[in-house]
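help with this.
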Amino acid sequence: MKRLVRRAQDLPPVRTAVVHPVDAPSLRGVIEAARARLIVPVLVGPEARIRGAARQSGIDIAPFELVATDHGSEAAAAAVRLARAGQVDALMKGALHTDELLHAVLDRALGLRTARRVSHVFAIDVARYPRLLLVTDAAINIAPRLPDKRDIVQNAIELAHAIGIAAPRVAILSAIETVTEDLRSTLDAAALCKMADRGQIVGGVLDGPLAFDNAISQEAARLKGIVSAVAGQADILVVPDLEAGNMLAKQLEYLSGAQIAGIVLGARIPIVLTSRADRTAPRLASCAIASLLRAWMLQTEAPKPAPGATPAWA
């Protein structure tokens, strides 16, 4: 995570609409990200509540632009308008519910939709795992169908490219590593792998279904006789549904002490989607990932390191 932040600090700070930052944690995240030269904040929300929270917490927001709105949903709509007008290049969730922000983002007439389905990635730094893990989707798509999973996978692959992983290894997770009609996630995994073979998913190496153990442990894969370019060394874990992904990410965070950042993909601009319980470090890492993603999006042809090269953040 620290390496990602250092790499993002070499880029110009991203002008970011911070939506409804009416409590101390979201304001502290703004201050730290601005001090780290990751973002130029534009605070969007009820002015009295924002200034009150800043006063109570001893936070100086005088240097920052403030766009006043009446409430959270209006703040989300105003932030999306700023993005559509090209006045901000990223959004960051403050102290409002995710669905309030996404309602404005996904508005068919006035939102930030693209042809791609919007999805979420947790970037997870687990001390015992030798690479960054990207877990998707654990926050937006509740029970994705196969076409949704295709977009979820492609979004995650492109994020991997943005942070310097040239050919990410993508493990499509299930409870088992064999295909059976009794478990839909295994059928979806097999279909996604074939879609990659046919060029419907590009830029990564896919395998699945894989159980979690053989996705991240080469020893587990060897004991089960799995021959795979992905097993034991996955960069991306694609979960069957939101419940599985959310539990996996939070177990890694609270039981393994992992550091977790969050980003929304598939919209016109990056969206930093942090938890209201997040500390400062995850917010900084999320802003760094948004900065790297924005830089990648601005390039007509994304730079791709040579396959097998050490990622730039490593």
Remarks:
- The longest strand covers residues 39-45.
- The first helix runs from residue 2 to 8.
- The chain has two domains: 1-113+267-314, 117-262.
